[in-house]
Design goal:
Elements (H helix, E strand, L loop, with lengths): L5 E4 L2 E5 L12 E5 L2 E4 L5 H11 L25 E5 L15 E5 L26 H10 L7 H9 L62 E7 L22 E4 L18 E4 L8 E2 L3 E3 L1
Parallel strand pairs: 7-10
Antiparallel strand pairs: 1-4, 2-3, 4-11, 5-6, 7-8, 8-9
Bound molecules: calcium ion.
The site of calcium ion has 6 residues, from loops.
C-alpha cells in the first residue's frame, strides 16, 4: 500500500459539477469512483528533484520546441522556455492573456521565473513548469498514476456533497483563508490577504475532509481526461498559448492566480482545458494509486 504522504479515499457516489458558475462545469450529474489513494499534496520541487536525479529526465520546458510544430516561427526563437506570469501595472484588457503571460526563455521547474531565479527556498512548494508528459513520467517512476477528473473532484470535495468549496460554502470562514488564491483586481492588484503572491508551501492551508492540502488554489493540477466541451468563453488565468494541436486535457483546482472578479475557479467543480505540451508557472500535479 502507498506509504509516503498518501491518503486513502473511500470511493463512492457523489454529485459532480456545478450549475452555479461556469458553463463547462454543467450539468451536475451523479458520478461514482472506486476507492483509491491520492497524494496529500501536490508533488513538490524536492520530490521532483529526486525524480530528475534518479532518471535524468529533461522536461518539455527544458527542450527546444520542434520546428515542425511551429512552421511559421523564426528558428532562432525556438528556444527552451515556459510561460511565466507577470503582473501588470494597472488594469488591462482581460480578454488578452498576453497582458500577464509571457514565454520566457530558460524558465523551467528549477528556475520558475527564468534565468537568475531558483527554488532554493521553495523545496516544499509545488513543482511548476511541468507539461503532461513530465507529470506522466514522474508518476510512472513513482509507481503511481495521474488521476481522472472524477477521482480528482471526488477527492477535492472531501466528503461534502455539492459544496461550493473544498471546505464548505463560505470562502473564508471566521476570516480564515483556506486556499492560496488571488485577492484584489487581477492581474495588477494582489492584496495578499492569504500571505502569498505566488505559490505557497504545501500544507500552508488547512486540509479538506479527507486530509488533502491545496486541492484548490496554489497550482492547477493535470488530470488524464480529455476536455471535450468547447473552451470557456472566459479563458481564466490559464495561459494556453504555447501548446500545439487541438488535443486538450482537463486541469483542475484553480491556482494562486484565480481572482473572484475574473476566475472563480478555486472550487472542486471548476475545470479548464490545457494542451498537453504546455507548461506554466501555475500548473503542477499530484498522483494516485488504484487498487
Ligand atoms: Ca495568494
Amino acid at each position: 500500500m502507498p506509504v509516503d504522504d498518501m491518503v486513502e479515499v473511500p470511493g463512492g457516489s457523489f454529485l459532480m459539477g456545478s450549475d452555479r458558475f461556469y458553463p463547462e462545469e454543467r450539468p451536475v450529474r451523479r458520478a461514482t469512483v472506486e476507492p483509491f489513494a491520492i497524494d496529500a499534496h501536490a508533488v513538490t520541487v524536492a520530490e521532483f528533484r529526486r525524480f530528475v536525479k534518479a532518471t535524468g529526465h529533461v522536461t518539455v520546458a527544458e527542450r527546444a520546441p520542434d520546428p515542425a510544430d511551429f512552421p511559421d516561427a523564426d528558428p532562432k526563437q525556438l528556444v527552451p522556455g515556459s510561460l511565466v506570469f507577470h503582473p501588470s501595472r494597472g488594469p488591462v484588457d482581460l480578454r488578452d492573456f498576453r497582458n500577464w503571460w509571457s514565454y520566457r526563455p530558460g524558465a523551467a521547474w528549477r528556475a520558475p521565473e527564468g534565468p537568475g531565479s531558483n527554488t532554493y527556498e521553495r523545496a516544499r512548494h509545488p513543482v511548476t513548469h511541468v507539461a503532461y508528459e513530465d507529470a506522466q513520467a514522474y508518476a510512472a517512476w513513482a509507481g503511481k498514476a495521474l488521476p481522472t477528473e472524477t477521482e480528482w473532484e471526488f477527492a477535492a470535495r472531501g466528503g461534502l456533497e455539492g459544496a461550493t468549496y473544498a471546505w464548505g460554502e463560505e470562502f473564508a470562514p471566521d476570516g480564515q483563508m483556506m486556499a492560496n488564491t488571488w485577492q484584489g483586481e487581477f492581474p495588477w492588484q494582489n492584496l495578499l490577504q492569504d500571505g502569498y503572491a505566488g505559490t505557497s508551501p504545501v500544507g500552508a492551508f488547512p486540509p479538506n475532509g479527507y486530509g488533502l492540502h491545496d486541492m484548490t488554489g496554489n497550482v492547477w493540477e493535470w488530470t488524464v481526461d480529455a476536455f471535450e466541451s468547447a473552451p470557456s468563453a472566459a479563458p481564466c488565468c490559464g495561459g494556453a498559448a504555447a501548446g500545439t494541436g487541438e488535443r486538450r486535457l482537463v486541469i483542475k483546482g484553480g491556482s494562486h492566480l484565480c481572482a473572484p472578479s475574473y476566475c472563480l475557479r478555486y472550487r472542486p467543480a471548476a475545470r479548464q482545458s490545457e494542451t498537453p505540451d504546455t507548461s506554466t508557472s501555475h500548473l503542477g500535479f499530484r498522483c494516485v494509486v488504484r487498487g
